[in-house]
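writing this on my phone so excuse typos. first protein, seq and then structure
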Amino acid sequence: MSAIIINGKKSALAVKNQIASEIKRTNKVLGLGTILVGDDPGSVAYVEGKHRDCAEVGINSIKVNLSATASQSEIVNAVNELNKNSKCTGFIVQLPLPKSVDVQKVLAQIDPKKDADGLHPTNLGNLVLAKNSVIPCTPKAILSLLNEYKINLVGAKVLIIGRGTTVGRPLSILLSQKESNATVTLAHTGTKNLSELLLDSDIVIAAIGSPHFLKPEMIKSGVVVIDVGITRTAHGLVGDVDPKVSDKAAVFSPMPGGVGPMTRAMLLSNLMELSNQ
């Protein structure tokens, strides 16, 4: 068996083309702000990619770069400045932040109406209540790709490995809502029967940041596998899933080239949604 490989770059290009057309048609003036703390190569590259996307579709860029030694109050001040900036219609605080910073306190300072990442407590609460809200970018990207590749979610047994607040937790809520109607299990470090859950799952989504954790022998044939993890190693960026899984899976979203490009595209999609509120 050889899996259908999900092409996130192609999907992202289609989304960006649609957004560019809408901006041109409506003459909307949008501005995406980013707050980058420090010079982590992965974060720097990711933020630069977001602004390249903006340039491609006609969205203005507003960059705020702080040193790695920036205090929590300095970061919060930067957040408040973008909250007040009329040219900034939505923004993100690039994660991770320094360990000395309380991430949730920083995110809580973002104006929910400018929360392009969908991580403000109000927007996460709206997600739980199934109200219209900005959805966190990576979960939104995963759902979009599953729908595009016509993966039947109704009643499907979905195993999400990883309970982080940016992917695992919001994704479990999103996929279990009535529109998707999947049966979702959220596995984590306390899960004792992971091997059994893996062999019983129709869709496996790995988001733990453990290089090549998921091996072919751990899944059943014909499963859908989505790799969300990313770890910087001496050999470059590595996902959570062993590429050999593609020989056993029916559909496989690799890293890189799968969810990542669509996550950036969903950020632009969220910015458009914020402008319509």
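second protein below, same order as before
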Amino acid sequence: MHIHILGICGTFMGGVAALAREAGHRVTGCDAGVYPPMSDQLRALGIDLIEGFGADQLALRPDMFVVGNVVSRARLSDGTPKFPLMEAVLDAGTAYTSGPQWLAEHVLQGRHVLAVAGTHGKTTTTSMLAWVLERAGQAPGFLVGGVPLDFGVSARLGSQRPFVIEADEYDTAFFDKRSKFVHYRPRTAILNNLEFDHADIFEDLNAIERQFHHLVRTVPGAGRIVANDAEESLKRVLAQGCWSELATFGAEGLWQARGAHDAFDVLRSGEPVGRVEWALSGQHNQMNALAAIAAAEHVGVSPATAAEALGRFRNVRRRMELRGSIERDGGTITVYDDFAHHPTAIRTTLDGLRHKLDAAGQRRDRILAVFEPRSNTMKLGTMAAQLPWSLEAADLSFCHTDGLGWDAAAALAPMGVRAQVAEAIDPLVAQVTAAARPGDHIVCMSNGGFGGVHDKLLGALRRHPR
């Protein structure tokens, strides 16, 4: 089968492309504005990419057009279609489907699907769970919305029955407004947390809770739902009906952690069943670990085995990924890349780093947060008022404001001189470079390429007078 994927460079659709290619299908695709790591992965797989969504691609005559949710029926200011290829597909009556639907029909059928849902931590927890099953000899398939360092790819078919998938609540396609995850029919489902997000498609938190309950409805009676016991929103979801085994995690849950964030015992019903010792920081990762261990047990992996595997877990690209360091005046300036883009994710990332520095006796080290509100929700300004709260652990913050329809300087005004804004990358780099000093940890946060800010910062820091 030849499939042509519209929006192939998104993390999910790129994963679908990789799975289709591994399954022996001919895969081509198109997109605009590509950036690593997905563009690198697709090129390494030998998948032909076409820039743009031109109608001339109809001449490729694939067996199926697979449509990503970046595609819409929108029109430009001059009245022409923004996605002419999609209009041509519709006019021609050619076969098309969504990415999640294609995945459900061609990959997930007959597999034991372990789905990881939640506003935050999906990518990391999915990677943890896939790694645990791998170390336990289960050779799982997986699709992750990032590139796990332990695997080097975002997706693979796997050779045994388990398939681990990042279960996104974002809508499926312009012609299917259900959340992606309702297509996956998991036997094991992790509900990590649930906050308001995706303000471009969801009216309020209740609307998202409704989609999460659609997911709960698809889990069979012999399945397991692993839920964060501390989330009131998830309790409301489960109160609407739960027909599967429920395994809770958190301070009051069935599964608990006891100890520091980087070295802790795993408890089930109050009894120690494993111990995790790793290099990751933050309570959020401790919670992610509990969820992964509880889910892995459902497919026969003992908690002790899962905990040992997590001790070897190397995380995911763009999750506090070290991009480089500069030695200056007897100290080190360190630059990280992180995917955080929701206020809670920003706060969690920075709190985790601050805790790690404090525990290492580096309380005087400063944290410089460099971020861009790039997600659709953040661009709308829905959560602008939460930014000062999200940045409390940072000593200084720098915001890239290009493309925003709201006043970032006003939103950050409560932070006073601790916050600066810039409309372009180069002035932003100049601000950070002028402020940086030995011992600083610079955390760049975005769900996009961020204009190559990481390399530009490292280059500017090298050139900056000592």
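The chain has a mean pLDDT of 91. thats all i got for now
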